[in-house]
Design a protein that fits this description.
Length: 285
Amino acid sequence: MGVVTARLAVRKVRERHRITVIHQNQVITAHRTAGHHECDAGRTRLEEGAGSVTDDSSRAVGLSGARSHLRNADPVLARLIDERPDFDPRAWISQLPPMDLFGALLFQVAGQQLSVAATRRTLARIQAMFGGRLPAPADLLSVAPAQLRAAGLSWRKVSTLRDLAERMSDGRLDPDVLSSLPDDELIAELTAIPGIGPWTVQGALIVALQREDVVLPGDLALRKAVQAAYQLDHLPAQQEVLAIAEKWRPYRSLATSYLFSAAFEPAGLPDLHAAVDYEVDARHV
């Protein structure tokens, strides 16, 4: 793992250097004449606008292709998809505050073994402590642990988040490098921290990094959703959920969203924390 992390760190430095050089070239060009500067600036604005449209269009095409793949791979999902033609799998994320990887992990840790209502109350208190936003690692370390406890975090969660923040602040963990790792390697890196299990990292992969092939087999809400959708006479174990999810690759995140949607439609949008009250094994959170 150390070799992989070092290799990715070197690659990241090279990428940053290349971006800086490009930026400097633009500045040099802008100083040649005012006319050139105006032309370059206009081109940049046009390219940014076109890029935004292209991104939206690409996302729509990608979502359509993913739905088509799931529809062909699994008749159960085909039914769920056809019953929800306007379903946006990421709509619920727009209800959350902006989150980087650390913020998403904070969100997930705060929600361990709590109801969605309790999680959102705790999150709101934490945001209020930091001017209405989620803290960066250094910000979290700047406040007394007792303040985080007063916001609604258990002492165990405070310890976990401070441990994570310290590792991200002192260089033991680089968020940019972590974000570049494959899912399994990222999960392995972060679950080495006491209090962070696969469920916590898997949720962050979806929320912050928008990874497309993530499934949460330890989530009891998902297991119940699978039981209902596939009309099983028993609650599936984690390995059974994973076996069923094999046919969803490489779009297991989208399939999971449809299953959550089917399970929680009466209550509104699906939420990763909707049934965390029912988690029974802390090793999986």
